[in-house]
């Protein structure tokens, strides 16, 4: 079986505000903005280089805006990504990693893939995690 993750639904309160944040601020590509009459609208955006998209809109999820937490994005350079997000006006955490004492401020000193992180939230409070992956695990 060959299955791929296509889209994740993010609950938002204001579709236009979310579209502006994801497309204009973060630079995600707008794949679709569809109104289906009445109270239905679906916007699909995709991060640059990603095969998986996110969707948000009206009438597509009963989840409360701001309750979606922990969606991962990956980068090969967490410092450059943080600088770019700050330049774009995104409130983003300082980098952290996990060491012998648990969560530790700063980037993993060995730059081990999968062990340095940033966090940020969209205007509704949906939380995102950015993880540094310099080399993928085999089979990916």
TrEMBL record:
Among SUPFAM superfamilies, the record links this protein to: Glyoxalase/Bleomycin resistance protein/Dihydroxybiphenyl dioxygenase (SSF54593)
Identify the stretch(es) annotated as Disordered: 95-114
User: InterPro entries under this entry?
Assistant: Glyas_Bleomycin-R_OHBP_Dase, Glyas_Fos-R_dOase_dom, VOC_core
Outline the extent of the VOC domain: 4-133
Protein name, as recorded: VOC domain-containing protein
Q: Taxonomically, which superkingdom?
A: Bacteria
Tell me the organism. Dictyobacter aurantiacus
């Amino acid at each position: 079986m060959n299955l791929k993750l296509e889209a994740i639904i993010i609950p938002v309160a204001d579709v236009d505000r979310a579209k502006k944040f994801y497309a204009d601020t973060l630079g995600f590509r707008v794949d679709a903005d569809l109104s289906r009459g009445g109270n239905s609208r679906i916007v699909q955006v995709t991060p640059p280089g990603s095969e998986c998209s996110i969707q948000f809109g009206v009438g597509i999820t009963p989840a409360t805006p701001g309750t979606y937490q922990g969606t991962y994005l990956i980068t090969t350079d967490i410092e450059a990504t943080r600088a770019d997000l700050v330049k774009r006006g995104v409130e983003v955490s300082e980098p952290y990693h996990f060491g012998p004492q648990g969560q530790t401020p700063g980037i993993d000193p060995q730059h081990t893939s999968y062990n340095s992180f940033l966090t940020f939230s969209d205007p509704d409070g949906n939380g995102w995690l950015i993880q540094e992956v310099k080399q993928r695990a085999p089979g990916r």
